[in-house]
Structure prediction request, 369 residues.
Amino acid sequence: MMKIQIKEWIKKEMVLCISVVLAVLSMFVVSPNKGYLSYLDGRTLILLFCLMAVVAGWKKAGVLHKAAEMLLGRISNARQLAQVLVLLCFFSSMLITNDVALLTFVPFGLLALKKANCTNIMISVVVLQTIAANLGSMLLPVGNPQNLYLYGQSGLTFIQFVLHMFPLWVVSFFAIWVATLWIKKQTVSVKMEYVMVTGGWFYLVLFVLCLAAVANILPCWALLVVLVCAILWKDKSILGQVDYCLLATFVCFFVFIGNVKAMPQLAQLFQQWITGRELTVGILASQVISNVPAAILLSGFSDNSSILLWATDIGGLGTLIASLASLISYKIYMQEKQSDGGAYLKMFTLINLLFLVLLWGVALVVLAL
Prediction:
């Protein structure tokens, strides 16, 4: 029983396991010392922790489900239902991250589709929800972990960041909208259960403080102190819902990259290979190791964080592991009694590759201007 649990945990946290192995191997070359502390990006780790805690509280308060209830109240056909469910992921992911958007709205969407007798479009909707969450999250630094990290590395102001990501975000929105038009307009009526919201404003205030820290208005250490004290007072169980494995993954990659940089010849080789090829290398690397570790790894050998932002956000498309958020929706879908893993993977891969080629082409055109 214990062995099975360990195997399941390793499968679930494969990226963390890989990052631990890389960090440990690098320690055999560069022995642990006080310099290791300089490897860690404390600002990114604090902001990630605070954002995950706030969103966990927001979700528990029922705010996200309540917003979805209000939007679904006027649905009259299957296409409208699909568009609402997909765009919920697209727009909400900018603020609550792509992972949380999918954890919240994919189960909600599956329930709505079943109540509306639209199980025939279940795979299409979940795939588009996944793409929408991965692409909608690119507009703001808080949308996903790689954005938050690269934003801190880039030196861009908040407005500059938004303007930089806006062209790809707009194209993504219209592409997703067009994709939903393929869904037929069969008549439906959706009735969802009433959701009580409690404590929503409390977490909204904490979220605003997080945004202030992201914009460098509030010191990160001050945010951490205020947030931890506030949550301990309100509901300490929220702190247990933070994804500490993601934080550990960041720490391990910071150690690995720091140790590689401490090896001059290897660091120079990495830098020569990546410099000038950030877009291509970032997209391709994301297909294999997923976009968050790709962003951390490549940023250690390239100063062109703005292009790495595009590369790793676009790179979240493609394979199922290109964005770990994609695994979330896949696992949720596979829990359904009528699930078809083969059909899901075929549609997921096809549509993701189409979006990948489109946005890669848009990025190349914008760079050429």
Observations:
- The mean pLDDT is 84.
- The first helix runs from residue 2 to 12.
